[in-house]
Amino acid sequence: MAVEEKWKANQDKVAFMKRFPGLTTSWQETIGKTVEAVAPLPSKAGAAVVVFSDGSFVVAPPVAPEPWELTEGLGAARGYLEPTHAAAFAEYDRLVRKDQEALRAARLEKILGAIQNNLGEIPELKDRLRRLVDQWK
Fold first, then answer.
1. Number of domains in the chain
2. How far is 107 from 56, CA to CA, in rounded Å?
3. By residue range, what is the domain housing residue 76?
4. Closest by alpha carbon to 57, among 33, 31, 24, 83?
5. Are residue 108 and residue 87 in the same domain, yes or no?
6. CA-CA distance, 46 to 103, in Å (whole number)?
7. Are residues 121 and 73 in the same domain?
8. Computed from CA positions of residues 120, 121, 123, 128, in that sequence, does the dihedral angle turn out positive or negative?
């Protein structure tokens, strides 16, 4: 019976925490709110409770975004951030173009390398490539 009571007590506690007054479960709910405090979680480095001036709060994971998250984040917030960080966005755009060009060049090199490595083993490869090039003319 004690085990069941413990399980029920824990279940009640968790249910109450999930409906705790002021708990914010959506970033949309934080729009326009002022941050009052940020309290780190002792047991998880980088995680924190963000407390807003109206008494609401959100428990946030560590702020260590992955590159794909930063890419999406910069894209989603560009309209808000670019007026303040125009030079940074110009540099970011330059680096994106450089990365895309490097990817294109790497793909080309890989394709050409595959062709060269297989010419001896696949004799008909030259003829097939010529026909393919002729189709494009």
1. 2
2. 51
3. 67-136
4. 24
5. yes
6. 34
7. yes
8. negative
Structure tokens at 26: 């959506």
Instruction: Mark which of 45, 60, 75 sits at the end of a domain.
Output: 60
Contacting residues for 36 by C-beta, under 8 A, at least 6 apart: 51, 52, 53
pLDDT 10s digit of each residue in the chain, 137 long?
A: 799 999 999 999 999 999 999 999 999 999 999 999 999 999 999 999 999 999 999 999 988 899 999 999 999 999 999 999 999 999 999 999 999 999 999 999 999 999 999 999 998 999 999 999 999 88
* First and final C-alpha spacing in the chain: 84
Tell me if residue 84 falls in helix, strand or coil.
coil
Instruction: Indicate if 84 and 26 belong to the same structural domain.
Output: no
Task: Indicate the burial class of 57 (C-beta count within 10 angstroms; 0-12, 13-18, 19 or more).
Answer: buried
For the entire predicted model, the pTM comes to 0.70
The span from the CA of 104 to the CA of 46, in Å, is 37
Rounded Cα distance, 99 and 88, in Å: 16
